[in-house]
Amino acid sequence: MNQLEPLISTVTAYCCGPSSLEKCPIMQITLEEERMRRQEEERMRRQEEERMRRQEEERMRKQEEERMRKQEEERMRRLEEEERERQEDERMRRLEEEEERERQKTGLAHLRIVLVGKTGAGKSATGNTILGGEGFKEDSSPESVTAQCEKQSGEVGGRKIDVIDTPGHFDTSVTIEKMKGELERCFYMSVPGPHVFLLVIRLGRFTEEERNTVKWIQDNFGEEASTYTMVLFTGGDQLRKKSVEQFVGESVNLQDLISKCGGGYHSVINDSDSSANPDQVPELLKKIEEMVKRNGGQHYTNEVYQKVQRKIEEEEERKREEERKKKEEEMKKQEEAIRKREEEVRREEEIKREEELRKIEEERQEERRKAEEETRKMEEERQEERRKMDEEMRKIEEERGKMENEREKMEKKRSRRNWFERLFNL
């Protein structure tokens, strides 16, 4: 009996001692894993919040930089426009001052001439005759050789001369829109303005179209242009013995046309041999100079030129605006690409993170399953041990009962013997 008491006390302490779940080693492992899992989730959540915060700060920073960049571009654009306007004003002022000085020195040092007329009148040949060269392309074809405005420059009699040749203004192959565009190019080439419009007419080919030429000039160059216009006859060699004055005097229509022009008229013979008519160009330039003096020494100017300047500025502004919009569109595309890439990276990170969490969760579940399996086995072993202990206890109790019965029997025998001994002693 005494030998079994330590075993009984050990089994009792093991089976009946503190057995709460908190003090179970397996449960403690499970709780620790759960705590670590929560800590990991909290850490991942904080990292995600920090990443989102940084992305938002980066987005706000980019927006602010873009706003500042646009403001700076707008400021620089305005400064460039102001500087360009100032430079243009300064250039025009200097040009006018230079022209005024040259005018005071030599009368008319720089002459700008615009040739107008219908196709085949000889405008290109006239330009070559004035400049004494072959800068303009000539052709005897009835179709227009000059498809667009062309400018040639040279020096004649000590003065610089710019000659601008224009397409035939009644050329059916040239659309109205194209003709307007060429007129604007003519304005641009003769900036700050021409001194004379030479209306080129071939002698012997005076038609209704040529009678309406002055009106065409006024419609396209403004009412003031007629005071800066001079009629220039070509093909004077075809008059034979008749002079140009006689030819004009015989035509009422020609007289009416010339009366509308402030510069009168002149005639030239466009011959490759300039030595045959050496005085025709100097006389023409002299008549032009006299006309300029009658016009107060000023060249032709009109709001059309201002309109051209405005159109040039508007075109430059439009190009800048298109460039700016193009850059903005490119930046938007880049930002969109960056945003998509960030979104893809974020999704990839989320997928990767979810995969990692899933693996962690699977590992935890596997560990939990193993722990539960281990706990179940330990519980079964404990129950088996308890059953064995109960069986041992039952056997011990049975043994104790037997021993008690033996002891009682022995006590009864001893009592009976003592009773008999006392009885015999009596």
Provide a concise account of the structure shown.
The chain is α/β, with parallel strands linked by helices. It contains ten helices and six strands, in the order ααβαββαβααβααβαα. Helix content is 66%, strand content 9%.
Polypeptide structure, described:
The structure is a single chain. By secondary structure, this protein is an alpha/beta fold. It is built from 10 helices and 6 strands. It has helices at about 5-15, 25-105, 125-130, 175-190, 210, 215-220, 245-250, 250-260, 280-295, 305-425; strands at about 110-115, 150-155, 160-165, 195-200, 230-235, 265-270. A 6-stranded mixed β-sheet has the order 2-3-1-4-5-6, sandwiched between helices. Strand 2 and strand 3 form a beta hairpin. Helix 2 (about 25-105) runs antiparallel to helix 10 (about 305-425). InterPro entries: G_AIG1, GIMA/IAN/Toc, P-loop_NTPase. Pfam families: AIG1. Keywords: GTP-binding, Nucleotide-binding. GO terms for molecular function: GTP binding. This is AIG1-type G domain-containing protein.
